[in-house]
Design a protein that fits this description.
112 residues; mainly alpha; Membrane-bound Lytic Murein Transglycosylase D, Chain A; 53% helix
Length: 112
């Protein structure tokens, strides 16, 4: 019995390296993250300006002997809020210290 041997004489294809594809995918991911980061940073600058423009805040000029509690009382009554929460928000929004010391003529932003 004769044996027949079949040989493929076509040139063999070289195995492609996965490295260029991985590098391309990594660079694409890095660029996408960079763009997302840039958009996120830009939106932090743009959004507060738009928010402040549409905000219904008022500026209260502090008079002699006036306290945060005096300023917060009418706001709390009008908004139906706890006066302590309003005082806290006034301190935070105006970057006041724990004591909430005010000076006559000082401008306080009332945002509610």
């Amino acid at each position: 019995m004769k044996k027949i041997e079949i040989r493929d004489h076509r040139p063999q294809k070289s195995k492609k390296s996965k490295l260029p594809g991985l590098i391309r995918a990594g660079l694409t991911f890095a660029v996408a993250c960079g763009i997302g980061f840039a958009i996120g940073r830009a939106s932090n600058v743009i959004v507060p300006v738009a928010t402040l423009a549409a905000d219904n805040s008022t500026i209260h000029i502090v008079e002699q002997g006036e306290t945060l509690w005096d300023i917060a009382r009418p706001v709390a009554d009008a908004e139906g809020m706890d006066i302590r929460e309003v005082v806290y928000q006034l301190r935070i929004n105006n970057e006041l210290d724990e004591n909430g010391d005010l000076r006559p003529g000082q401008k306080i932003i009332v945002r509610f």
